[in-house]
Amino acid sequence: MSRVETSMLFGTMFSIEEINDAGGLGGRELVPVHYDPQSNPARYAQLAAKLIQEDKVNVIFGCANSNARKAVLPVIERSNRMLFYPMMYEGFEFSPNVIYTGGTPNQHNAPLAHYMSNRFGPRVYMVGSDYIFPYESNRTMSDFILQQKGGKKLGERYVPLDAQEKDFSAIVQDIKQKQPDFVFSTVVGQSTRMFYQAYADAGLDPRQMPIASLSTSECEVAEMGNRIAEGHYTAAPYFRSISTSRNRSCVARFVKRFGDRIEPNMSWEAAYFQVQIFAKAISQVGEDAYHALLPNVLGCEIEAPQGDIRVDPVTHHTRLHPRIGRVNASGQFTIVAQALSAIDADPYMISHDLNDWTHALQIVGQDGNDTI
Amino acid sequence: MKNGKRLTPEFLKQLRLRRIAVVHPRDEDGDVLMQQLQRIGCRAQAFWPPPKSLPSDTDVIFCAVQPAAAPTALEWLQSCPGAVIIAVIGYENPTVFDDMLQLGASGVLTSPLRSMGVMAALVMTLALSEEVQALHKRVVRLEQKLSSVNQINEAKLILMRTRGVNHTEAYRMIREQAMSKRIATEEIARAIIHANDILSS
Predict the structure, then answer these.
(1) What CATH number labels A3-103+243-319?
(2) CATH 1.10.10.10 for domain B142-200
């Protein structure tokens, strides 16, 4: 299990414990059945079937990427169960049996493209892992960039999912030579660290030419170390550093119970609040069969650590609070911009208009001397 | 390391601008279809029972094809001749296929409908119909071209016969006429053929 996947498991367990500590659901204890699919899509499908057939589970929380979700989907649909999926993904999906709580490109890619191209310039170099999420992210980023005056794509490179530092050496040299305004990274998982490391080793300075990512969270920052990560950007609806009392109290409770080994991050938060959605829905209907539960999940609003969120009844996706963070010296994200209000997911949006973000994104703190 | 060139095709960017009519009963399939079109973000309008006519600017029609004793003439087909048709069928048998093809469908969805598949059918049908339309235009252009070549040849033969000139000279005469009258060579050729018809009858 990767660090982020572990954090999602802990976010889920933490949420269940809190519900049980508050008296359970209608006086009944919530008992999780947990298996480890070892990040393997085929194993995900087998274990989902086992959960349903042997453990008689009606609701499943999990899947850490699109490959895993696509593998589990037919199992969930055939048996008419419900899946809560906490990762941000590339959109273009609707299953009546899935609740998507991690968000879609209009909530992540669009504000990031808008912020970075206005703050640093519209000449971009793209690096991604070799699978569907980076392909789609780079497609939308290309559209954004070419909408901009002077916008240019200086490179689009893909590396294997298990890429090592040496896989990035030719890429960082190419970046060094081409000098883009910023680098857009959709490198995920363990190789994130390798890329940022290679970037630093090549002497590339994030103050001049930062990396912008959709998936480099507090977990990846902890893995690579603050020195390498400092100054780079990530778009996410949640950062541990959100300074509301609601979030501070949630993080404090988590750290008190589970210690400092697990870094709260965007996927952890979605894993946490999606169990709260389930709990609220079930408290209204008293059972967890799909047909009984669904009407109460759809339209459900809760107070999540990132802010108030809502499950859209038409798309089954969640309204979220887009934010842009920059890694600071202590390895946390300084929030430099955030959406003025929560944004609904638009999973089937093919063509994004950057101008939509001109008035929607608010610059925070010292970074805000220029209006974006 | 691989290089990529991801970019959205212009044709897909326009998807949300398509006007869509759904001629389908308001049952479970109809609901799945309308909701999925709403998610995709297309402007979709439902019609049932089948209306006499549809909005003339309709781009795509999703149409339920139900088995009937005899294929029924669909009046609304006349009202939007430019629209592409995607059939929604409940049976995969020759009777229903025949009805579906009579309707002029170029795409198909099968009942029970699932959300997944609607967008793929929509994209595929629109892309193919654009290709067919482009090919159709090309065929029309080629037919016109062929007929004008034939006419010019015929006019040349008339001139060669009546004026005793060779191929090159005959063509030069036609072109000179066309240039001085500022009209197409084909028209001069037609005038020569026409005059020859009158004189020789």
Answers:
(1) 3.40.50.2300
(2) yes
Give per-residue pLDDT as tens, B92-140. 988 889 889 988 999 999 999 999 999 999 999 999 998 998 999 999 9
> Which residue does chain A place closest to B6, by CA atoms?
A139
* 3-class secondary-structure state, position B34: helix
The region that residue A33 occupies, defined by phi over 0 for left and psi between -120 and 50 for alpha, beta otherwise, is beta
Among A94, A157, A347, the residue with its CB nearest the CB of B1 is A157
Q: Which chain A residue lies closest to B13 (C-alpha atoms)?
A: A351
Distance CA B44, CA A342 (A): 27
List, as ranges, residues 23-62 from B with C-beta within 8 Å of A: 35-36, 38-41
CATH of A106-239+321-369, one of 3.30.360.10, 3.40.50.150, 3.40.50.620, 3.40.50.2300: 3.40.50.2300
Confidence of residue A352 (pLDDT cuts 50, 70, 90): confident
Q: How wide is the angle at C-alpha A182 spanned by C-alphas A178 and A183, nearest 5°?
A: 80
| ipTM, 2 dp | 0.81
pTM for this predicted structure: 0.87
- Establish whether the linkage from the previous residue to A295 is cis, with ω within 30° of 0: no
